[in-house]
Amino acid sequence: MTRRLGDVAKKVGMSEATVSRVLNGKPGVSEATREAVLTALDVLGYERPTQLRGTRARLVGLVLPELQNPIFPAFAEVVGGALAQQGFTSVLCTRTVGGVSEADYVSLLLQQQVSGVVFAGGHYAQADASHEHYELLYERGLPTVLVNAAVEHLGFPQVSADDVVAAEIALGHLRSLGHERVGLVLGPRDHVPSRRKLAAVAGLVDPALVEHSMYSLEGGHAAAGRLVAKGVTGIVCASDMLALGAVRAVRRAGMSVPEDVSVVGFDDSAQMNCTDPPLTTVR
Fold it and tell me: Which of 89, 147, 173, 203 has the fewest CB atoms below 10 angstroms from its CB?
């Protein structure tokens, strides 16, 4: 590998570091430089790395943040079925804490010559997260779709729920039931869909009754527990998992749902009809 780097660098008159960036698919290299390095590889008789051979497999990466939330397996089933009808196979990539990162998955998918990537709940939904791997996909011209948020400056196609309408519907439902002291349990502060929901009802909810949490049952439990202690009678949650945590928090406080506190979720996961009581949730 070292000899190959040296030979190619000498051939094109560039540093070995630049050649290495091209061969490893790293960002920050112009298209002209990339083409010069690949041409030199061919002229010198070296084999191109798998991800640079030019023929894409009929594979589409499906990158999800987790599978514990039932909305994501359901999403994978629908997208995988639609891809199969078009002759493509989905490659499921699930992020894990301390495991393979989203950026690592992008590198692996590029090595496998996938035909495209679909992201759901990815780092693009977090304003403060690193977006370099999306820029790499953009530079490569790989078809990419973002679900439920976007990296606006890259112009990727996006499919998104209407967070504004969803928040208005949920809050309006609780208001129609007579609830005046309503709290919100949203995702992290830099989570774009959560920001949209908050902006939609910011003037209608007491800022002291807005809680932010990771998207998990435990996060919903902790956040809702703080709201219950403040005397809310209704809670709007940004996901069904958060809502299940909220229901548990209400019960742990010695109260019942919906007699004492009403809870509304978001996602309309199929399993929510099996809870006791069935969860009211926004589709």
Answer: 203
